[in-house]
Amino acid sequence: ALNSRINAARRAVGDDGKRQHMIRTYPRRGFRFVAAVENGPPPGGAATGKEGRSAAAKPSLAVLPFANLSGDPDQDYFAEGISEDITAALSRMRWLFVISRNSSFLYRDRQSAFADIARDLGVRYVLDGSIRKAGRQVRISGQLIDAASHRQIWAERYDGQLDDIFSLQDEITSGISAALNSEITLAEIERVRKVHPSNFDAWDHCLQGAAEMHKLAPEAYERALSEFDKALQIDPEIVPAHVGLAWCHALAALHGWTRSGGKALELSVRHAHQAIGHDAGDPRAHVALALAHFWVGEQDEAVAAALPAIRLDPNMPEAHGVLGNALAVSGKARQADEPLQRALLGSPRDPMRWFWYHGKANAAFALADYTKAQEWARTTTAHRPGWAFGHLIGAASAALSGNPEAAQIELKRLLHLIPHYSLKRLSHHPIWTHQPDIERLIEGLRLAGLEEG
Predict the structure, then answer these.
(1) Averaged pLDDT score across all residues of the chain
(2) Which residue among 37, 310, 419, 450 has its CA within the 20 to 30 Å range from the CA of 155?
(3) Strand, coil or helix: what is 128?
(4) Where in the chain are the domains?
(5) What contacts 330, CB < 8 A, 6 or more positions away?
(6) Cβ neighbour number for residue 447 with a 10 Å cutoff
(7) What is the pLDDT of residues 53-65, one digit of tens each?
(8) Which residues contact 272 (CB under 8 A, 6 or more apart)?
């Protein structure tokens, strides 16, 4: 839609639909670029780049050519292939601005400091790496640098065999792009904490909202809603705000933080559809819809919505994670392990990691492996103490495995987070759809001492 493209242009130059300092809307006539244009360096040394791009509009990254340290010029193609594949994979992330390969590769024989390269290219982050080959062994190292602070925010090393060079290249590309998905998000959240709220743009409000949402607390939920609403006031079509609101309303309904759980779930689905309506090519929008379906217990629809997200970005941990969660509670637990494991391996520090752990707990319970279910439930609540349903699985699994003391401890923690929870409420649990699993949950929690209600 034309409005989507205008909003994208405004974000690219640091403008928005409320201020309209640079691109102005003339009702029933059109749009006009109204800012003054002059040649010269960026004001205040801001990293806007030679072509006037704004690095402040959204996180921006340059993937520099990986250095070939093998001493064998014939391996240059492999080093360049890795860099090109990572650039292509990261470019699928619609929230991340990635400099093209042609621009980044001008620094193949770089002598400049990272800060200078970032300033030249107009980016906030630089991914640098090297490749060292010895016989059939290859070692690939990568590091992500915040150019403004000169801080290394991520580093990793990959070892492999050159027997199947293309499979190795795909594996490394997938690992790096999945890891950077969460690492850049974490770095952006940390950056925004140092920005005064009066200077926030729509993206900054989305980051603040996400940080509050992941605290899983009623007061934090209210702050998250406020931040996402502020983002939409600045840019009504910004996808991460709709994604965040879809999550917030669903979590509020599940935890009883709102008087109308049904209304909250309706809002969750509505915002997910709005996210897709604004940008159907953004995999986060499809993940939001998959999650909305998951929360309301429409697991076949959740699976169907997750698959387009994976097609758009095969390395997106959230897409694999929600797919695995939906399979775990819909009678297809044996199929859940592969996508959940891929989510966990692909994003070791993801703020969403607790949710993938919860999927593992649900899958283990569905398969009647109550020891594993308790282990994964404890891992879930260790990462997210406010997630009541981790304690629910823990209590039911402990009771069914013949450990009443552990079951009562988990039940007490569940009731602390959701007072007055009962077997009657559980029987209408919106997530589980496989009736035999629901019956075993009820049986386990009855043994643990949960009241009928």
Answers:
(1) 83
(2) 310
(3) strand
(4) 2-39, 60-192, 197-448
(5) 299, 300, 303, 433, 434
(6) 17
(7) 333 457 888 999 8
(8) 242, 243, 246, 285, 288, 289, 291, 292
CA-CA distance, 82 to 210, in Å (whole number)?
32
The class that CATH gives domain 60-192 is alpha beta
The rounded distance, in Å, linking the Cα atoms of 7 and 162 is: 46
Q: What's the mean pLDDT in 14-42?
A: 61
- 230-288 confidence digits (pLDDT tens): 999 998 988 889 989 998 998 888 777 888 888 888 998 999 999 999 888 888 889 88
Q: What is the pTM of this model?
A: 0.66
Give the pLDDT band of residue 303 (cuts 50, 70, 90): very high
pLDDT (0 to 100) of residue 19: 65
Strands of 17-101 (E only): list them. Answer: 23-26, 30-33, 60-63, 67-68, 97-98
Nearest to 306 by CA among 331, 277, 276: 276
What does DSSP assign to residue 424?
H
Largest CA-CA distance found in the chain, in angstroms, rounded: 76
Distances (CA, A) of 11 to 58, 228, 232: 8, 17, 13
Q: Find tokens 């205040």 and name the residue.
A: 44
pLDDT, average across residues 136-157: 87
Superfamily, domain 197-448: Tetratricopeptide repeat domain (1.25.40.10)
Measured CA to CA, the distance from residue 105 to residue 369 in angstroms comes to 51
Q: How confident is the model at residue 41 (pLDDT cuts 50, 70, 90)?
A: very low
Q: Tell me the C-alpha to C-alpha distance, in Å, between residue 180 and each of 100, 212, 285, 343, 400.
A: 17, 21, 19, 13, 40
Q: Which two tokens stand for residue 278?
A: 């604004």
pLDDT of residue 398: 98
Instruction: For tokens 């308790």, name the residue.
Output: 374
Q: Which residues pair with 160 in a beta bridge?
A: 138
